[in-house]
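Why run this: before we spend reagent on co-expression, it is cheaper to look at a predicted model of the complex and decide which construct boundaries make sense. The entries below are exactly what would go into the expression plan.
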Amino acid sequence: MTKRKIFAIILLVFGIFYGGTIATLNYFTPFSAQEPALPTSQSTNQNQNVQQKLKDLGYYSGNIDGILGTKSVQAIKNFQRDYGLTVDGIVGKNTLKALGLLDTSSSYTNSDLYLLAKCVHAEARGEPYVGQVAVAAVILNRVKSAEFPNTISGVIYQPWAFTAVNDGQINLEPNDSAYSAAKDAMNGWDPSYGCLYYYNPETATSKWIWSRQTVVTIGKHVFAL
Amino acid sequence: MENAKIKKNNGKTILTIIVISILSVALVTLVVLYSISMSNQNNLKTDLENVYQKNFSELVDNVNNVEVKLSKVCASDYNSYAKKLLNEISKNSSMASTNLASLPVSIHGIDETIKFINQVGGYTEVMASKLEKGETLSNEEISTLEKLRDSFSMLKTKINELSKNIYSNNIFNQSTKLDGDYNEFTLKLQNIKAGDVEYPTMIYDGPFSDSTVNKKIKNLNDEKVDKETAKQKLVDIFKNISKSSCSYLGETNGKFKTYDFELFGNGNQTIYVQVSQNGAHLLTMSCSDNSSKQNYTLKQAKDIAISFAEQNGLGNMECVWSDIIGGDAYINLAPIQNGVIIYPDLVKVKVDLALGNVIGYESTTYFTNHIQRKLDIPKITSTTARTKVPNGYEIIETRLCLAPLDYNREVLCYENICVKNDETYYFYVNAQTNQIENILKIVETDNGNLLL
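The model came back. Tokens follow.
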């Protein structure tokens, strides 16, 4: 009886540890990717969205019923006229785009912009907006410079170039502000006027960086040539 | 009594066995976990090491290729065979710099080496395109190529020496950081440039040339003003902003010297502006806008942008490109000279469509390039230029423009805006030679349109 009890207890202990081990193993497996969240709010009715948008903009006063009747078509036409589109009362690609309702279904994803926005978000979230634009501009200045790789991804993923890439923060999803800053920089904005480096004087560990000629301080970052 | 003692002893034994078994199971588990995690880590290390080794081997290959091909170019008659080689050198250099930048090295351990390799690529590209146009290379250019060959051959020797050491050693282990930025591997690569490799200066108009980076500012020769004058200028431009809501932040001392201010505008917007110290011109203005409301139309936004530029002294501008992204209109303006669009002098304006005010402004390109151009009279007519557009492309508009081509080259062109299968193309036809100089295509993306 006692022997059996002891045996049972030993089995139980093994059982618990074995289960625990499995659980821990799963937890520690590297790159255990999280399932991406499925988009929850797929548009249920495009027509209703068009009507709502036209109503918001003051072009339409009827019901949001999803039926594009005379009233709706007239509203679409008025909208198209004001926005310089072909006035045909048909909701095509351009009209949807002008209404801000075009599904993101273009076959070309601007991966450079996304990557730039990710790097800006990781490196400079919490900084003033212009500081974010300047960080994006530094990355683009490096692409143009001979001393650095010649592509955006080459510059961003250059080993030890950016701390936020080293510690994995680069994989955070960028917010609107980072996107907007990346877009501005790509469009030619450069508040640093050609800088290739920036650092936070409070946390910078490199002695070498202090030898660069500083250009401007924006927020917590010093931008340098 | 005896029984109770035995029972007590039994209980103790059971407890001891339980404790021992728990401890031993825990120990076994730990060992298993540790060995699994170590083996995972080793696998990852090996994977990473393989990537490094691959990049390093490719670097050695590409550097060797460039060196051999440069020697061949110098042995050639600088004609069609040289053109082929020069193009290949440019490709090999570009790959070599990519390989070098993928290695675990601190930036400042390799920046000069990358610069040299990139400039060799840029220089050979420009020389190849010269030969393509049927031009011959000058004596000076030939002697630069010879100098490049000598320097590259030294770089090659250094990198090959290093490779003997690398193949028998692990890059990963050598790349663990020692002191902030330096590691063993960085120091080794840094030795390459510290050695006898002398990098010659290359004077050319092309990618990665120093002349492109240090482009002179052509149009900012006004007197230097003090920051109060700059502030007053801002109050004049932004009529709804008082001096008290305009705070001075400091100076920017780069290529442009500016006074920097922060303005508090409509709807809690914080606007950052940079005003040139010479002549108090508004150079850059940045502000974020997170609302996607659109109370204003694109056409209204264009007018707002044009009149804003005019207020800043940049008159006679036309909208040459516009796009709505989120709640903002991005508008590019270019000056018009005798009916010709001057593309090199773009001014970029961002208009908030909710409030209808300017929230972004960029005129450094304008001030860098803008001068009154001497425009040649076109040798060909717009009708002739239209014949250069292939069949099937419907021409929407043809207009004369000064197009920035290659590097620092401005060419008078006919711009033909065409549509095919709902896609828009821009054909640039040289107004003197009737040759197609460039084709751009509008690419729609999730984040607005791109001109590629």
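The radius of gyration of chain A is 27 Å. The mean pLDDT of chain A is 76. Bring this page to Monday's planning discussion.
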